Amino acid sequence: MMVAVNLLLAIASATAVSSHAVDTLQVETTIGLVHGIINSSTPYHNNIFGFPNACGQDEAGENVNMGVLDQRLAAEWVRDNIAAFGGDTSRMVLGGSSAAASCDFYSYAYPDDAIVSGFIFHSGCTGHGVNTDLAHTNFTFVAEHLGCVDLSLKRNSSICRNTGQLKWTTVIDKITKFENYTKRTLAGKYSKLPAIEGANANEEASLITWPGPAGLNMTYIHEKSLSVYICPAVHHTSLRFQGDSLTFFYFNEANFSSISPRPWEGAYHTSELPLLFGTWEDYGGPGTSVEASVSGHWQDVYLEFMKDPVRGLPRHGWPAFGPNGSAKLMGANGGVSQLMDISILQDECAGIPETYG
Ligand SMILES: *[C@@H]1O[C@H](CO)[C@@H](O)[C@H](O)[C@H]1NC(C)=O
Ligand SMILES: *[C@@H]1O[C@H](CO)[C@@H](O)[C@H](O)[C@H]1NC(C)=O
Ligand SMILES: *[C@@H]1O[C@H](CO)[C@@H](O)[C@H](O)[C@H]1NC(C)=O
Ligand SMILES: *[C@@H]1O[C@H](CO)[C@@H](O)[C@H](O)[C@H]1NC(C)=O
Ligand SMILES: *[C@@H]1O[C@H](CO)[C@@H](O)[C@H](O)[C@H]1NC(C)=O
Ligand SMILES: *[C@@H]1O[C@H](CO)[C@@H](O)[C@H](O)[C@H]1NC(C)=O
Ligand SMILES: *[C@@H]1O[C@H](CO)[C@@H](O)[C@H](O)[C@H]1NC(C)=O
Predict the structure, then answer these.
(1) How far, in Å, from the CA of 183 to the mean position of ligand 4?
(2) Mean pLDDT over residues 305-331, rounded?
(3) Spelled out in words, what is the top-level CATH class assigned to the domain 5-128+169-349?
(4) Of 31, 25, 109, which Cα lies nearest the Cα of 75?
(5) Annotated catalytic, 191?
(6) Which has the higher per-residue pLDDT, 42 or 14?
């Protein structure tokens, strides 16, 4: 018998800017078994493979973010084929974390034909990740070292050369990524489907260079977590509200020693994924009962969102974002979940320069 099930199209992520392999631990999950969710995990081209920003592509007028096109291809494939695996195409939600929250780009690139019925943006949105390699030297550097100069340049562009750090991220191609998302959102040029959006309290703790025995500068960690992750998410959510679309905001403070063994780590970048996917024991061994409850609760509420992106969460006590409204606070002070005033975050973000574009 075919059973209609809910479908989380999770975009697996490695950071877009440096060269980590996809962490499959985060997507190999038991969530499907527990909740009747088909976890259709979709690796996509990332880094140099997804966002090569090559000189030759630019000269040919074809400098497109192929990694975002991969996400579209995945959504189309799942739409066309998932019924054969018991999936329900009317209950597809597209979600990702960090670089994979570039599914937010998707929501602007396919405003009227999103295929899915909701989005989940964890620790990333259109507001950050501007490609500053306007001279396209990064790809040339790699191509030359691999003996592929002709392929990389196509034409005679000796200017596309440099030596230095390698960095890959999305470019403004006006197909998958646009110039000014504030303007675009206010003009209503995005998919107005409901979304879950949020960030972790201590994002930057896992993103800086190892500080050595002296430990971290927590002031710096806090400032960076706000300016790069938390505030762009708050701002994006508020823009979506002005555009008349529903966004359910979460703020994660979960700090469990099985995932965050060192005192300064706390809710670092990606630390919520083992909870969401129920894989925390694969990191640091058995967790606590509160940890199990946070994990179970997170899965429960996301399942409600997948079943009914408009009414599911409000029915379970998680209201959509609004001025002076509430965010869902996860794992704070030894608890599972509670509501917090969104104004606390808005106030913290008030003095932070807007990098949203
Ligand atoms: C979830 O997706 C990953 C990657 O495709 C797969 O390895 C894993 O077995 C899946 N988990 C379940 C419960 O289906
Ligand atoms: C890569 O691009 C960055 C700017 O985003 C630049 O600072 C760096 O020098 C470039 N590296 C190479 C090897 O071209
Ligand atoms: C390629 O550029 C170099 C340096 O700018 C120039 O000397 C050379 O003539 C160019 N070759 C062609 C085929 O345009
Ligand atoms: C983006 O658009 C907004 C709204 O139209 C505008 O206020 C802002 O100045 C623009 N930003 C840039 C960098 O052009
Ligand atoms: C810690 O970071 C803050 C904010 O970036 C900076 O003002 C301060 O000087 C740093 N402290 C130390 C000891 O480096
Ligand atoms: C995380 O919890 C531990 C104790 O369980 C505490 O010592 C540490 O300060 C907490 N870290 C953060 C960043 O909140
Ligand atoms: C939000 O709260 C502030 C201060 O508490 C108040 O001045 C403002 O009018 C409120 N805004 C809305 C939309 O309720």
Answers:
(1) 6
(2) 95
(3) alpha beta
(4) 109
(5) no
(6) 42
Domains of the chain, residue spans: 5-128+169-349
The answer to whether 254 and 330 are in contact (CB under 8 A) is: yes
Q: From 140, 149, 156, 157, give the residue whose CB has the most ligand 3 atoms within 8 Å, as the site to mutate.
A: 156
CA-CA distance, 329 to 338, in Å (whole number)?
Answer: 5
Q: Which residues of 190-281 form beta strands (DSSP E)?
A: 195-200, 247-252
pLDDT at 14 over 50: no
Coil vs helix vs strand at 115? coil
Type of residue numbered 252: N
For the CA of 32, the nearest atom of ligand 1: 13
Query: Which atom of ligand 5 is found nearest the CA of 224?
Result: 5
To the query of whether residue 98 is one of the catalytic residues in this protein, the response is yes
Integer angstrom CA distances of residue 184 from 6, 53, 126? 31, 23, 11
What type of residue sits at position 130? V
Structure tokens at 350: 């008030």
Phi, psi (rounded to 5 degrees) for 237: -65, -40
Tell me if residue 258 is catalytic: no
309-312 contact pairs (CB < 8 A, 24+)? 309/93, 309/117, 309/118, 309/193, 309/194, 309/246, 310/194, 310/246
